[in-house]
Amino acid sequence: MDISKTSILNLTILISLLVTGLLYIFLISPSSTSLFLPRTAFSACSGHNKSAESAAHEAQPQDDLEHALRKASMANRTVIIAIVNQAYADPANSEDSDKTMLDLFLESFWLGEGTRKLLDHVLVVAMDRTAYMMCKFRRLNCYRLVTEGVDFAGEKLYMSEDFIKMM
Questions:
Q1: Phi, psi of 149, deg, nearest 5
Q2: Which residues are listed as membrane-spanning (predicted)?
């Protein structure tokens, strides 16, 4: 069987690329541990002060807020939080145009220099159902804050009793 030098060279290049890729995945890549080990196992065996039980507890969100925060957070756990209600999110409440305060806020991420990527890390806390539905319609990271005894759907004057309850 006659194997030419180019075939041997091509095979050598292919094998070296394969070995280099595997070395990168297993040894060099910072995310290599999370590819093959669950996060809890890595945390438990990497010398952290947390026990395996607390690491497993931390890996599972406890409620909707924790889930929303994890989804919106950056790698360094930074989150941009915006609190809105119907007065800021419903187009029916805007007098001058069809744009709401929420629209203007979101538009600033599109128009700013290098800020478009930050939009994935915005968590909109909706104070009422209308604001929550508008947030979901825009496919943002949303959390519905449910409060009892106070209606946060309408506009609240600065430093009024309802405004202070809201804060």
A1: 90, -15
A2: 7-27
